[in-house]
Amino acid sequence: MNFIKSAIRKYSLIKIFLFLGDFIALFVSVIITLSIEFNKSFYFRSPFYKVGQAEFYLIVSLLTLFFFRYFNLYKRKIYLTFFEQFIEIFKSVLFCSLLLIIIIFFTKSDRLDDNPRTHDILFIFTTVTTTFFYRIIFLKAFYKKSDIKNFFTRKILAIGAGKIGMDFSVNIKKSRFNYFDLVGFVDDDITKKNTTINGFPVLGQTKDLEYIIPNYNIDEIFITIESISYNNLMNLITHCKKSGNQVNLVSSHYHIVNRKFDTSEFDNLHYISISSSLITIYPLFLKSILDKILTVMMLLLLFPLLILIGILIKLGSRGSIFYKTQVIGRNGVPFIWYKFRTMKENNNQDVHQNHLEQIIKQNKSVEKLKNDPRITKIGRYLRKFSLDELPQLLNVLKGDMSLIGPRPCLPYEYNLMDDWQKRRTSVTPGITGLWQVTGRNRKDVTFNDSMVLDLYYSENQSFGLDFRILIKTIPVVLFGNGGT
User: Fold this and answer.
1) Based on the domain organization, do 348 and 421 belong to the same domain?
2) What are phi and psi of 20, to 5 degrees?
3) What pTM value is reported for the model?
4) Model confidence over 282-323: pLDDT tens digits?
5) Judgement on whether residues 317 and 442 belong to the same structural domain of the protein
6) Is 19 within the bounds of a domain?
């Protein structure tokens, strides 16, 4: 029961209804598609598996739900619109279908020889139609009823009754969605207690949260404080998490997340969901299993490339093929990190250490050293396309790393960090992560911004978020974006 309540707190009933409705609509589209020409049978054959036509469309349907998440179809700024929602539904189904067709092609499936193109086109058409009909005709009419709308309304509490808090309350009143019910404010300024801000009462101070939240049946907490240090903000977030409620932030501290990785639910009300009370089975158990399975598959697939890279490194310069060093992993525990060697042997590490020290202490943009003479010719290409990272698959197999997560840091880098920045080590480090696909080596991303991206990920781990990062990693690798 606690898990169900926690899930409803995070996702809200409207999103749960949406997800279940989409699942049913996609299942109906499979039945309609197969019923048109029931006497025909196409098969998906490969050296690894054999799947019938019905199973193929069911797989596409399940993957489509993840593309729905990727294209923001579970955000209020999309699911309560008409034209925008139709476009996103169509894109989701089309992308997923193309992905499966590409997989079939590269596995040399006999399914293509059976020419099921008419069925595939019909499936795309029925999927878009049934899903759009459910969302626009049924759900929107259902949601418009005042009693139903009140049922989905979430009671919220704002911490901080200053200018940001006042602007937040104004936007709540102006919002055309009428989804949030602002109960009031909490502020540590004792002169504001028992006053009203823009018509909303100040209910007490942060020390009173444990009494205010249950008494007013609060569903979500919004931190609306601008003048606060990162360290004090993290402590406040930790304090709010004890309530078991979803914690959101309305300030510039996490602006990099929305700027680089759109998370806003509304067009006129921008906030970041920075901490979830929901602990799912995915980060605790499933993620590790998926890491191991995908890593083994990647090592088998990339084995010829790994051998070729090793030969080129050996021919290009004297020294070992691999570069090994100690880095900081989960909970500050060190481990040995593997990479392909991209630098000349016995180079001076002080240059890199001084560069990092300036970035951290002065909060500079996270850029790598340009025209570094220590890098070999083959090393520049390996770095550009992130191929030097491939040996870290061995770290994943050992359990020191995950495929997706914050990057591990060097010991001297870790020692320079503030306490709030070190919180990024609360999760297993990864080969690629939110910072790598949104802000790596870009002038508009400061060191604090990169830490915030990692902290956001550590607080919001989910299969959906990992799926989005994985999709965004593909162009980074293929086109060498952000590499040096």
Assistant:
1) yes
2) -65, -40
3) 0.73
4) 777 889 999 999 999 999 999 999 999 999 999 888 889 999
5) yes
6) yes
